[in-house]
Design brief:
9% of the residues lie in helices and 41% in strands. It is mainly beta. Strands 5-11-10-8-13 form a 5-stranded mixed β-sheet.
């Protein structure tokens, strides 16, 4: 499946009330989950947030025991906080639980929350706020 088709699907889900879309093409399967649309105080619709949990097969095993790496499930601009000026979601030394938000990837005005698929202590953060990341890039090392 080419990148343009994926971008078109993301745009469609972002503008619709579809809660989940699963598309398979040429051996690749893309699942896009859409939380309920958000509405600002003035009544205008905000871009929905797509929730993505990093699957276990994207977690790496390093040479050290019980050290795993959460990798980017999408390509885009990485944000450390929920909104500009807010505190970062995580810092080195923080204890995280499975399902906890680690960072946010923005692609085409769609915001994807990257959640931990396992718990532990944040050992290393591989990115800076506003940095562009690619699919599969290491984001956070957890032990």
């Amino acid at each position: 499946m080419d990148l343009q088709k994926i971008k078109t699907l993301l745009d469609f889900v972002g503008r619709s009330r579809v809660s989940e879309l699963k598309v398979s093409d040429a051996g690749t399967t893309v699942i896009i989950r859409n939380s309920s649309p958000m509405v600002a105080a003035g009544g205008e619709s905000l871009t929905p947030e797509t929730q993505v949990s990093v699957p276990p097969e994207l977690a790496d095993q390093n040479n050290e025991p019980d050290v795993r790496v959460v990798r980017a499930a999408a390509t885009g601009i990485l944000h450390q906080a929920q909104s500009p000026g807010a505190a970062p979601l995580i810092a080195v030394g923080d204890r995280v639980e499975s399902g906890q938000a680690l960072c946010i990837i923005e692609a085409m005005k769609v915001f994807t929350t990257v959640n931990a698929s396992f718990g532990g202590t944040v050992k290393r953060i591989f990115f800076e706020d506003g940095q562009e990341v690619g699919f599969g890039d290491p984001l956070v090392e957890i032990c």
